[in-house]
Amino acid sequence: MKTVSSTIATVLGIALMLTWIYIIADAFTTAKKRHLTTTIPADQLRRLFVQHAGAGRWRVYDNGYTLIAEGSHHPVYGRQQLRLAVTPNPGGGNLAVLQPTAVYRLMGIPQWHWSLRRRLRDFTDAVRALDPALVVTFY
Known about the structure:
Elements: H1 4-30, E1 34-38, H2 42-52, E2 59-62, E3 66-70, E4 81-88, E5 94-102, E6 105-106, E7 109-110, H3 113-130, E8 135-138
Antiparallel strand pairs: 1-5, 1-8, 2-3, 3-4, 4-5, 6-7
Helix pairs in contact: 1-3, 2-3
């Protein structure tokens, strides 16, 4: 006969396992490249990136083609980076490629992904606010 405490322990163990699976899956999806197809002009996309991805203590570098937002150096993991490249879309509008290029990893699992996710979400939400027809594709 099962006791109440063993049932509670089983339920808590399953909940903990599902939470861990969610965190790992979320970390790996944060590290994916995104293609944003939009009608917003390239210069406005670049301004939005500087405003949203480069917020806080992050710096933004412009090499003429690509914008790079870079976080401060972490003593163990190094730096985190987001990269934005905007090209004209053959079907009209622009194709913005948004990609985390430096992601903290520990034993292959991305760490501190919530910082990247927040910046990715803020930028994507700002673009969607100006272009409700925005199409986001993950690669």
